[in-house]
Amino acid sequence: MADATAQLSNYRQSPRKVGLVVDSIRGKKVSDVLAMLEHMPKRAGAPLAKLIRSAVASARSKGLMQEELVISKIEVGRGIVFKRSSPRARGSSSLIRKKSSHIKLELSRRAAKKQIPAA
User: Fold this and answer.
1) How far is CA 75 from the centre of its chain?
2) Domain limits for position 65
3) Are 32 and 67 in contact (CB under 8 A)?
4) Which of 2, 44, 86, 111 is the 20 to 30 A CA-CA neighbour of 54?
């Protein structure tokens, strides 16, 4: 069950490139992810950090603390595709597809670690 959600629609970068960043942050603690995205050399890092901060603000309004939140589910889908053309040889043209992404994020509370009784 998600404690907080956020989504980013029509982010102007291809889903394949955004997916590389998303795969590296899935399942991690929010505080670790924000530090990681700050130093990541990918363009999708800053918008994803902003999206996570938005979801954290939503969780705070429900009375949750940032330290107990984990990225439980994050998925990247295809957004709209702008179609442009580029002139080519002999009067022809080729199609340029400018892709965009939809990103959906869910945060949930971290599961408590099970204590193994000492034998």
Assistant:
1) 7
2) 4-109
3) no
4) 111
User: Model's pTM, two decimal places?
Assistant: 0.87
Alpha-carbon gap, residue 54 to 62, rounded angstroms: 13
Task: Give the amino acid at 117.
Answer: P
Kindly report the CA angle at 39 between 17 and 28, in degrees rounded to 5?
75
* Domain assignment of residue 52, yes or no: yes
**Residue 11, domain member (yes or no):** yes
Residue pLDDT, tens place only, 26-41: 999 999 999 999 999 9
**What is the per-residue pLDDT across 49-66, written as a single tens digit (0 to 9) for each?**
999 999 999 999 999 999
What is the CATH number for 27?
3.90.470.10
State the angle between helix axes of 15-25 and 45-61 in degrees (0 to 180), rounded to the nearest 10: 50
